[in-house]
Amino acid sequence: MNPSPKHKKVGLFFGSFNPIHVGHLIIANAMLHNSDLDEVWFVVSPQNPFKERRTLLADHHRMQMVRRAIDDNYRLRACDVEFHLPIPSYTCVTLAELSERYPDYQFCLIMGGDNLAGFHRWRNYQYILDNYQIFVYPRPRFEDNPFAGHPHVTIVDVPMMDISSSYIRSQIALKHSVQYLLTEPVYEYLTEMHFYE
């Protein structure tokens, strides 16, 4: 039975998803089953302040890949809210926008241990830390973290993986197979469009 909107707890999984891969989906699924989240929204970012835009596929292509990847799971959702906000996108602005749009939803952040390690560099990070719950999945080489003991930070039991979108892009450029690193619909879309070649 789906929870009513006013009780819905949503984890926001931010990323470029360039492209979305099975690692992202494993993390999202583990978050749903190892926490009290009702849904996970993939927030596709037009520009990460710490990354160069020139490496990104067009926004609509990355959004299309996310939609295809999660189409069979009603608890996962693609979110394009940042496409309509100033660039570069900042999480604090996105959280404010979503909280205004959906006042009865409780939004939380999902991030890797590597992002938590650099969390002090985020705009208005203290406000986010004080007002939003953060669910953290482990990442290789980022076991210890000064924020890990904060009452709003929860470390979730998620398989530790070292799959990255940049690795997938590099393998495609080398004409190596990435078939099992992507869902079949995403793999077919990438192949058909000749992305990253």
Can you tell me about this structure?
With 197 residues, this protein is of the alpha/beta class. Helix content is 34%, strand content 16%. The protein is globular, with a radius of gyration of 16 Å.
In short:
By secondary structure, the protein is α/β, with parallel strands linked by helices.
Q: How does the SSE layout of this entry go?
A:
Layout: E1 9-15, H1 22-33, E2 39-44, H2 59-70, E3 76-79, H3 91-101, E4 106-112, H4 113-117, H5 125-131, E5 134-137, E6 153-155, H6 165-173, H7 184-193
Parallel strand pairs: 1-2, 1-4, 2-3, 4-5, 5-6
Helix pairs in contact: 2-7
- Largest sheet entry: 6 strands, parallel
Cα Rg? 16 Å
Q: Please report which band the strand proportion falls in: under 5%, 5-15%, 15-25%, 25-35%, 35-45% or over 45%.
A: 15-25%
Amino- and carboxy-terminal Cα gap: 44 Å
Shape: globular
Order of helices and strands: EHEHEHEHHEEHH
Q: List how many beta strands DSSP finds.
A: 6
Helix content: 25-40%
What is the average per-residue confidence, as pLDDT, rounded to a whole number?
A: 90
Widest sheet: strand order? Answer: 3-2-1-4-5-6
Low-confidence stretches: none
Q: Count of helices?
A: 7
Structural class: alpha/beta
Q: Any descriptors?
A:
197 residues, alpha/beta, six-stranded parallel β-sheet, 7 helices, 34% helix
